[in-house]
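Throughout our pipeline, every protein is held as a single compact record rather than as scattered files. The record that follows is passed on verbatim for readers who wish to inspect the format.
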Amino acid sequence: MKKVLIGLSGGLDSTTLLGLLLEQGCEVHCCIFTYGSKHNAYENEAALNILEYYYNKGCTVSSTSFNLEEVFKPFKSNLLLSGEDIPTGHYQDDNMKQTVVPGRNLIFASIMAGLAETIEANTIALGVHAGDHLIYPDCRPEFIKALDSVIYLSSDKKVEVLTPLLNLDKTEILQKGYNLKIPVPYQYTRTCYTSNNLACGKCGSCNERLEAFNNLNLNDPISYE
């Protein structure tokens, strides 16, 4: 059985990635990061609920949690608790660049690569997708290509980077998730970037999610303000 590490944020993309890898027969070890984002507590709660869901389905899943709040405390981003309000509007709008957290995926991937070597997994999988490319530089194909090379070499050619959603948009990801034998538990996922208990339905992340469900003529199973 192939052992794979993923970063599980509790969002739609990483949860679909988890479901996809489990259907392929992989043993999946999930990394859950606390880094001081506005929605972090809700993300982590979602991730734990998702893990429990798959565990109860008989899937081979496990997890490790990392607290990086002190690391990210000096960083500037509206996504962090120390930043200004989360912008509203469409995900592709220029103001959504305010939610970029500098170096986040690079830091997360480095930690995952180190853990992969430790537990003898030869793959780390990231849920980056086509909708992220415009806004987030650490989600673009050229970054992923370089990251794969760096991690492959730093691990003495033992660990590679897998990004099966890289060229898919949110609608295509959602459709893939609903086509799996074990349905992806989208009712447990957290997408909204705000610190609100319920999803705001106004930020770029919420808008992109709602558009994906609408494109497939499906009702989003979570509640909104």
Remarks:
- The CA atoms of residues 55 and 61 lie 6 Å apart.
